Amino acid sequence: MNPPELNNTRPNEVFHVVEHLFRHEAGKMVATLTRIFGIEHLSLAEDVVQEALARALQTWPFYGVPNNPAAWIMRASRNLALDVVRREKVFRDKEPEIIRLMDRQSPSPDAAIFSEQEIADDRLRLLFVCCHPQIPVEAQVALALKTLGGFNPAEIAKALLTTEAAVAKRLTRAKQKIRVAGIQFEIPAGEELARRLDGVLQSPY
Q: Does the pTM of the predicted model rise above 0.85?
């Protein structure tokens, strides 16, 4: 026997809300968590956001959709991330700083943890990382669509007229290049900004 649904929230309604969050909010959350974790842990930031979205699908049909669904997902992602930081040895040296950046207290569960300006800046930094000249152009577009656009490899493959396996390889290689090349999570300045701007503008196009 299935447990009763609370607040008259139907599973298909929850699915549509979570789908919207995945398309429009997940990239913002991934960008902010990437700033905190470090760009070398981009995949981990993606994983905790995906897990938070999955938990929303499991719990919201019974407890209702929160007043601020995006804040709920961000808080759940942060808590999952904190669990990872406290458990994994790889974060031991940076643990106090990471926890300081993530463990913010807001007045209510529906209040945003990070400001809109912080999130906007983080998204722009991540876009410059995705479009770094050391990453092949075809991989730049795939990485930007995946991390910031909320598209899965199958959708990216269809848009780029290639196979899902090819997109998966591009994403893997792009993330490897970020780690190996030590690409910084930053907005470049001066001549470097001008040199990289075309690539950044081309990717959203």
A: no
